[in-house]
# Entry
Amino acid sequence: MTAVEHPARAGGPARQPARIPFPVVDEVSRHCLQEEEPETVHIEIHLPGRLDRERLRTAFVAALRRHPRILMREAPGGWFRRRYEWELTAEPDVEVVTFLPAGRCALRDARTRALTTAPPLTLSPPIRLEVVEGAGPVEGSEATDAVGVAPRQDESPLRQPEGTVLFLTVNHTALDGPACLRILATAAEIYGGRDNSPAAPPVRATQAAQDPVDLPSNWSPPARVAPGTPEPSPGNGLLVTELPLPHRPKGSPYTVNDQLMVATALTLTHWNREHGAHPRPLRITMPVDDRPRDTSMPIGNGTRLVEVSFSAEELAVHAPADMPGLLHRTATRTRALKSLPRPQLGHGASLLTAPVTPVAWRAALTRGLRRAAGPWTSTTLLSNIGRIPYPLDFGEGAGRAHAVWFSAPARMPRGLTVTTASTAGRLHLALRWSRALLSHGDGAHLRDLFEHYLHTTEVTP
# Structure
C-alpha cells in the first residue's frame, strides 16, 4: 500500500484513513507494555559538522512521506474489538524533529529520554528525532560518555563542541531499528543531495556439507544474568562504547557476528561465576533480518528471533586453544538457525494473536503466559546490526556519520541486551540493562569483560 489516505470526491465527505491490523510482533508487544520500562529503540548518529535546522526538518518529513508505512498511529477501539489496528495518516500529527541546546549533559540527557519516554502510539509517527548541536565525540578514547556511568581513567575529556548528534527514539511496538535507519538514510539523501544507497552485503562462505550442526537442547531453563547491585529507581540504564573491530583471518569459517556471540557468552559466564551462580546452559536471542535495505524495504517490525544455545560445559573452562573450536561450533549453529524458515516469534505467537476472541482477553492471556514462561526466556539478547549499509552522508557542512549506536529494550527477566554496529571500521557497542538487575558500575564491569573476551576471539585458527 502506497497511498495513506483515500482522496475525497469533489463535494463529498472525506474518506476515513486506511487501517492495517497489527502484525503478530506488534500485538504481542502492545499486550505487554509497561510504564516502568518503555519498549524503546535508541539510535544515535554522530556527525562531524552542523545541520541547517529547517532543511533537516523538511528532509525528514519528506523521508516519512517516501515511506508512508511509518506515518501511522494506533486507531481507537473498545475492549471487545478483535484486533488492534494502525491508522495511516497523510502527515505527522506532531513536530517530529526537535533541536536541543548544547551543554555538558546534553548527550546524557538525550540518552536518558530515549530510555524513559517512548513516543506515544496514538500520535503519528511513533518516533521522534532530537538533535544535539555542538556535541563533539570523545577524543583519543574508546568510550563516549554514558548514562550515569563515570568514564574510565584512561578516557580523555570531550573536544570543544563542533559536531551534531541525532537521537532517534522509536516505539518498538510499532517499528524496529533497521527500518528507522532506512528512514534516516532517505532523509540524509534528501538533505545532502548525495547517494545514500546501501552497500552490497558481504559475501559469506557457504557452510561445508560435512559440517555437523551441534545444537544443545533447549528444554532446560537457561542461565539468568546474575544480579549485580540493583538500583531503587525503575527503568533501564545504558552504556555506549567504541571498540576496534575484532580481527578475523581471511577465509575464516566464522563471521564477526559469531565472534560477538562467543564474546557475549563468555562475558556472561564470567560474570555469573564471579557472582556465585551455578553453571547452566546459556541461550542468546539473535534477531535475523532478511529484508532488502533499499527503498523497497518493508517498514515495521521485520526481524525474526532465533536462539543460539551454549552448553555449560563448553563455556565452563576457557583457554586460547579452545577458541577455534568454539567459534566454529557457533558459526555452524548460527548459519543453521538463520536458514530455518520460522515465524517471527514462533508458531505459538501466531496462534496466540489469532483474532477469535476480544483483544483484551488475548492481552490478559499473553501477559500471563509471558510471566509463566519467564524461567525459559533466553539469557540475553545480542542484536548485531553489522556494518551500517548506508553512508548516512548529509553532504557539505554536516558530513558523513562516523559513529552509530543502537540499543534494544532490556526488560526483565533477561534484564540485559547487547547491541552492536560497525561504522568507519570501528565497533559501536551499547549495553542496556534493567535497573532492577544491575547498576551503572555493573555495566562498566560488563563492558570491560566484553572487551577482554572479544579480544580473545582474535586468535588465529
